[in-house]
Structures are given as structure tokens and as C-alpha cells.
Amino acid sequence: MNPLIFTTILMTVLLGTMIVMMSSHWLMIWIGFEMNLLAIIPILMKKYNPRTMEASTKYFLTQATASMLLMMAIIINLMHSGQWTITKVFNPTASIIMTSALAMKLGLTPFHFWVPEVTQGISLTSGLILLTWQKLAPMSILYQISPSINLNILLTMAVLSILVGGWGGLNQTQLRKIMAYSSIAHMGWMTAVLVYNPTLTMLNMLIYIMMTLTMFMLFIHSSSTTMLSLSHTWNKTPLTTTLILITLLSMGGLPPLSGFMPKWMIIQELTKNSSIILPTLMAIMALLNLYFYMRLTYSTSLTMFPSTNNMKMKWQFETKRITLLPPLIVMSSLLLPLTPMLSILD
Amino acid sequence: MLKIIIPTIMLMPLTWLSKKNMIWINTTTYSLLISLISLSLLNQPSNNSLNFSLMFFSDPLSAPLLVLTTWLLPLMLMASQHHLSKEPLIRKKLYITMLTMLQTFLIMTFTATELISFYILFEATLVPTLIIITRWGNQTERLNAGLYFLFYTLMGSLPLLVALISIQNLTGSLNFLLIQYWNQALPDSWSNIFLWLACMMAFMVKMPLYGLHLWLPKAHVEAPIAGSMVLAAILLKLGGYGMLRITTMLNPQTSFMAYPFLMLSLWGMIMTSSICLRQTDLKSLIAYSSVSHMALVIVAVLIQTPWSYMGATALMIAHGLTSSMLFCLANSNYERTHSRTMILARGLQTLLPLMAAWWLLASLTNLALPPSINLIGELFVVMSSFSWSNITIILMGANITITALYSLYMLITTQRGKYTHHINNIKPSFTRENALMALHMTPLLLLSLNPKIILGFTY
């Protein structure tokens, strides 16, 4: 794609999300979402083949539906409150419709079906943008309307997302689908604590974005989209295998890596609010996620699977540039001792 | 406590910056020095604990375990030299780094004051152990073993996290030193029963309790020698240590909640001892013997009398040293014949007489011969369980008999009789191996002269 055009489109995506995050008028928020959606379609279709077209179409249809539902909720809110400012939503119906719309945008169960298929159909870099940047805008709206969200619906969606994200990923060998299911599960964790302490949602979002960025960068570096091709990285850059191990264990939420911090904080917040069974259930279901991450680490770093290539040096074509990988890796694995600093958020 | 933790962390740069011919020498020497520092902790002047800071403390229960942990690192390094000799330098350094990381986490776990810090470090010990088992184990079953190990422990310990956080909400602090004085009885309700279960299951899986012990034979057998040593000697004791710490907060439910686990342990120790009599795999035999000894510790901890706590602590230290020594002996067989089958290498006394002496000493301490500390531990546990309920003496007595049976079976099968014709060209014992056995045996024998340092805080 022409670099000038590509920059313009990328900037439009950024602008769309920024408009969503910084507006106080509901209509501007809707405009921001639409701008974001329309501009990201060409990015998703960087390679022009039927697979990408299908993925982009699915993405467009679901997101457009979600925007329309959002518009309906906005209008109902306008009807009942007479104003367009973003505060809590004044009508329970509008609140439920808005929650469903934002869940559709995020990929929470039961609206999660588009996430694996869209992520699988697009290239790794586009998938990266899809799973990290696109989650910021809906999450910021959820944060702002969090006082009025119906707790039952949100918690049901969260728990089901963690379950679906765990179980759905078990049978996958394609890396993009694995990341998609991991995204569904993490979104579940984030929305579970939204009503209790929205700051923890933002913390979880931050750490999730760092870990997902790291994982995608490592996949792009080794140009691998399946588990099989990832298991050949010992041949190209053996250090990458260790980095993949650390980042995957962090995503699974194992102490002493930083992926444990959001889970711990969320469990703490939920327990403080006297729900005990819910965090226990969520924590145990996160183990399903850990299982397929472990399978990925086994094939990549801890064993050497019978592979097609036995030579020490594999032919490399070009070194892809990986931006900011060392700081990302450090941040996605070593942040746990900084947890007491979270008290500044009070 | 930083005087032990920081040198241990610094062992990692030492490994990476050492020259090729100096890595083993450097790491073994410095880890021995660190273990000498930790010996000073054994001097506990009063019944109160030695408090070093807000985060670390040392107490007559944790000091012997800490000394055992730091003592074991040089031994693990010595034991691993042979099987790593053919690996490239970076992989050797990675292995030593994993061991050092594990050591750091273990030291911090045993000295943690805050229970959530204890939990995080308890979980943190899983990652290096998993990497050691899966990356450096020898058979294909190690993949399954690693998964079983990780998931059994995590399933048990996630409810523990929730329980600890809810206790923190209730009582305001999880600092162990405060809880000792602050302790109130838990009110009687269904949710407190689940709280009890959540607190104890993590340690039951780690110990392991008889019904939840499936991970142990897999993990112990598939791990390389250092992995087996640290698993048997220390990681199982983490469960015992955790149980000893957390039962102070869990009265009065323990009086009735403990029954199912007591039954499982009492029956399980007989079952696992009996299975040892029919094992063909040498490491598997030692693994099941670990389960049996740990079942005694579980019984002791759940009975909660002063004598049983003394017995539990003594048994943990004694079993740590004995089990680790048995794994080293089994490994010396494995390195020569590359097989773990016991009957493949028979009659070793004729070929390696000094090693046979170590085998004899290890088997005798395993069956708790007087006056070793194994006997002191077992005797205290048997006596306190007799006072808890007279009938348990039958099961305990049967267990002691069967333990003696399988220990002697293992000794006689590997050492006595005519040697098999195919092992007459095995290498003689290395000095390193003899030193390893001596370093295991000497603390064990010396402690029988002054067992009060390992008898814990109820002495």
C-alpha cells in the first residue's frame, strides 16, 4: 500500500479511538466508533485474498451491528434523561442494550464468535492491532458507564467468556486463533471486576496489551502462524524460544511473572466484596488457558519435536524489525514486585 | 536474611560470567559458603522467632528447613555434573540458573512473614521445577509428568489464594507473627468449612496426600537428578511447612475436619509402602517411599499435639536428607547402566563396595533405625498418634514393618547376590559421588547427637 495512504488510514484509526476516549457527547462517541471501523477495514485487508475479505466482512458486520445497538441505547438514554453527556446511563433497558453492544465490540461471550475467525483471516500485524488497540475504545466507554451496568448480565458474560476462552483454545494449533481465545478470556477477567473497581480493569488492560504485544512481536519475528512453524524457532534464534516461554507463562498467570498481578488484584477486589465462589471459579477456569499455553511452550522451547529441519542454521530471508521488544518483554514478565505501587491508585 | 538471599541471587551472574572450566567449581564452592552462613540461624535463643525485618523472619521451624535448602544446592550441583558434561556450555549455565532461581524462591518462601508473600513464592517455585523436569528429563513421559505436577499443584493452590485474601479481609493482616497472638476461634459455619478446605488442600496436594499423589511418582521419576533431589527433599516439605503454619489459624474446625485426611493418610501410608514392595523401577520405589513418609507427617500435623509437631519437623528434615541420598544412589546406578530397572544392576557390592556402604547406611536410615533422626521423628509421630487413638498403633506398626521390608528389599536386590554378567565393565565410583553421599550422611549422623535443633518450636 502506498505509504502515504497507509499512514492516513492508520491515523484515522488512532483518531477514531481518541475521539471515543475523549468525548463527552454520545454522538461524538458513535462517530468515533464508526471512524475507527471504517478506517480499520483497509488495514485488515492489507493482503488481498478471499480469506482476508471474508474476515473483514465478518468484522464489519458485527461491529456495525454493535454500533447500531449503541446508537439505539444512546437514543433511549436521550429519551429518558434529555441530555447527551456521558455519565451513567439512566434507563435499565438502555444500559442492557449498551452493555450488549460494547460486549459485541469487545468479543465477550455470547458475542465472541467473530473473534477467532476474524483474527485467523488477517495478517499477524493486523491481528495485533485488532486484539490490542481495538479493545481500548469499548473498554473506555464501559469504564465511564460502569456505575449503571447491570451486574448480573456483566458477570454472566464475564464468567462465560473465561470459560469459552479457556475451552475454545484447547483444540487450536493456529497461533492467531490461540491469541483470539486468549483475548476472549482476558476480556472476561477485565469485565468481571468492572463494577467493583474499574481501575483494576484498566490495570488488567494495560498488562494484557503489553503481553499480547510481546507475543505478537515474537510471532512476527519468527514469521510463524502455526504451532508447527513456531517449533522451528530453536533453529533461527534460540533466544526467542526462552522469551516465548516467559511471555506465555506470564499470560497464563503464573507467579512470579507480571501476568499474575492483574489476576491477584482482581481476586482480591472480588473477595473484598464478599463474592468467594466467583473468583475461585474464574481462577480455576484460567487454568484451561494455562494448559494450551503450556502445550505451546512444550513444542517451542522445552522439547525438540521431530521437525523437518535438523540443521543448526536455517535459511533466513530478511530480519523483520521488532519494535521495542526488550522493554516489552521486561514489562510483561518482571512487574510483579512493583505491586505495592498500586496503592497510589487509591 | 538478605545475607543469604543476595548471595544466592548473585550466584546467577557468577554462573554466566565464569569460564568454561570453572563453572562447577565456582558455583559449588560459593553455594557451600552460603550454606555455612545459614547455619548461624540454628541458634534460636528463645521461643520467639528471630525477626530480621518486616518481611523475613526465622523460627525454630523454618531454620532447619532453611539450612536443609541451602545445604542441598551444592549437593545438587555436584550430582548434576556427570549428566550435564556433554551439553553445550550455555545449557549448563541455564540449568544452574534454574537451580539457583529455585533456591532463591525456596529461601524466601521459608522465611516469609506475610502469608500472601509465602503463597506467591510457593507458586513461583513451580516454574523453575517445571522447566528442569521438562527440559532436562530423559524420557518422553516427562511431558505428562510436568503437566501433572503443574496442574495438580495449581488446582489445589488457587482456592488457597482466595482463602488467604478473605482471611486478610476478616482479620486485617496476614503477617504470620501477628496472627500468632491475634488468633481467634473460627466461628462454626459451612463457609468456614470451605475455608478450612481451601487453606489445606494446596498443602495436601503438595505433601502429597494419598488420594492426590499421582503427580509425585511421575515427577520424581522423570526429573533429572537435581530435580528429583530438590523435589523430594524440599518441595514436599513446603507442603508440610505450610500446613504447620496455617493450622494455627484454623481452629476449632480442625478437630472434625481432619478426620477424612487422617484416614486417607493412615491408609495411604500402608498402601504406598506396600506398592514399594512390587516396584521394578528404582526411582519409582523411592518416590512411593516419599509418599509414605509424608503421610506420617500429615498425620502428625493434623493431630496437633506438641510431640507430634516435634515428630513432624524431625521427620521432614530426616526424610529430606535420606530421600535425596537415595535418589543420588539411584542416579549413580542410572548413569552406569542407563536404566532404572532394579534387577538389571544386581550384586553391586562385589563391584563397588564403598558405594554399597552408602547404600547400607541410606537404607538403614530409610527404615528408621535407631539412633537416627528418622527414628526420632517416626517414634514421636507413632507415640502421639497412639495417644490420639489407640488403634492407630496397628497401622503404624504395620507401616514400620513394611518400610523395613521394602528398604531391605531395595538394598538386597541392588547390592547382594551375584552380579549380572553385563555390568562387569561399569566405571568405579567417582570421588565426587562418594563426597556427595558423605555430605548427605554426615549431617544425618551428626544430628542424631543433637536432635533438639530440628525438633521445631514445640521443644
TrEMBL record, chain A:
<dbReference type="InterPro" id="IPR010933">
    <property type="entry name" value="NADH_DH_su2_C"/>
</dbReference>
<dbReference type="GO" id="GO:0008137">
    <property type="term" value="F:NADH dehydrogenase (ubiquinone) activity"/>
</dbReference>
<feature type="domain" description="NADH dehydrogenase subunit 2 C-terminal">
    <location>
        <begin position="290"/>
        <end position="342"/>
    </location>
</feature>
<feature type="transmembrane region" description="Helical">
    <location>
        <begin position="26"/>
        <end position="45"/>
    </location>
</feature>
<dbReference type="Pfam" id="PF00361">
    <property type="entry name" value="Proton_antipo_M"/>
</dbReference>
<comment type="subunit">
    <text>Core subunit of respiratory chain NADH dehydrogenase (Complex I) which is composed of 45 different subunits. Interacts with TMEM242.</text>
</comment>
<keyword id="KW-0830">Ubiquinone</keyword>
<keyword id="KW-0813">Transport</keyword>
<feature type="transmembrane region" description="Helical">
    <location>
        <begin position="151"/>
        <end position="171"/>
    </location>
</feature>
<protein>
    <recommendedName>
        <fullName>NADH-ubiquinone oxidoreductase chain 2</fullName>
        <ecNumber>7.1.1.2</ecNumber>
    </recommendedName>
</protein>
<dbReference type="GO" id="GO:0005743">
    <property type="term" value="C:mitochondrial inner membrane"/>
</dbReference>
<keyword id="KW-0472">Membrane</keyword>
<feature type="transmembrane region" description="Helical">
    <location>
        <begin position="241"/>
        <end position="261"/>
    </location>
</feature>
<dbReference type="InterPro" id="IPR050175">
    <property type="entry name" value="Complex_I_Subunit_2"/>
</dbReference>
<dbReference type="InterPro" id="IPR001750">
    <property type="entry name" value="ND/Mrp_TM"/>
</dbReference>
<feature type="transmembrane region" description="Helical">
    <location>
        <begin position="322"/>
        <end position="345"/>
    </location>
</feature>
<feature type="transmembrane region" description="Helical">
    <location>
        <begin position="96"/>
        <end position="115"/>
    </location>
</feature>
<feature type="transmembrane region" description="Helical">
    <location>
        <begin position="57"/>
        <end position="76"/>
    </location>
</feature>
<feature type="transmembrane region" description="Helical">
    <location>
        <begin position="276"/>
        <end position="294"/>
    </location>
</feature>
<keyword id="KW-0812">Transmembrane</keyword>
<keyword id="KW-0496">Mitochondrion</keyword>
<keyword id="KW-0679">Respiratory chain</keyword>
From TrEMBL, chain B:
<feature type="transmembrane region" description="Helical">
    <location>
        <begin position="223"/>
        <end position="244"/>
    </location>
</feature>
<dbReference type="GO" id="GO:0042773">
    <property type="term" value="P:ATP synthesis coupled electron transport"/>
</dbReference>
<feature type="transmembrane region" description="Helical">
    <location>
        <begin position="256"/>
        <end position="277"/>
    </location>
</feature>
<dbReference type="InterPro" id="IPR003918">
    <property type="entry name" value="NADH_UbQ_OxRdtase"/>
</dbReference>
<feature type="transmembrane region" description="Helical">
    <location>
        <begin position="193"/>
        <end position="216"/>
    </location>
</feature>
<feature type="transmembrane region" description="Helical">
    <location>
        <begin position="284"/>
        <end position="303"/>
    </location>
</feature>
<keyword id="KW-0496">Mitochondrion</keyword>
<keyword id="KW-0520">NAD</keyword>
<keyword id="KW-0679">Respiratory chain</keyword>
<keyword id="KW-0813">Transport</keyword>
<dbReference type="GO" id="GO:0031966">
    <property type="term" value="C:mitochondrial membrane"/>
</dbReference>
<dbReference type="GO" id="GO:0008137">
    <property type="term" value="F:NADH dehydrogenase (ubiquinone) activity"/>
</dbReference>
<dbReference type="InterPro" id="IPR010227">
    <property type="entry name" value="NADH_Q_OxRdtase_chainM/4"/>
</dbReference>
<feature type="transmembrane region" description="Helical">
    <location>
        <begin position="21"/>
        <end position="41"/>
    </location>
</feature>
<feature type="domain" description="NADH:quinone oxidoreductase/Mrp antiporter transmembrane">
    <location>
        <begin position="112"/>
        <end position="397"/>
    </location>
</feature>
<feature type="domain" description="NADH:ubiquinone oxidoreductase chain 4 N-terminal">
    <location>
        <begin position="1"/>
        <end position="109"/>
    </location>
</feature>
<protein>
    <recommendedName>
        <fullName>NADH-ubiquinone oxidoreductase chain 4</fullName>
        <ecNumber>7.1.1.2</ecNumber>
    </recommendedName>
</protein>
<dbReference type="Pfam" id="PF01059">
    <property type="entry name" value="Oxidored_q5_N"/>
</dbReference>
<feature type="transmembrane region" description="Helical">
    <location>
        <begin position="116"/>
        <end position="133"/>
    </location>
</feature>
<comment type="similarity">
    <text>Belongs to the complex I subunit 4 family.</text>
</comment>
<feature type="transmembrane region" description="Helical">
    <location>
        <begin position="61"/>
        <end position="80"/>
    </location>
</feature>
<keyword id="KW-0472">Membrane</keyword>
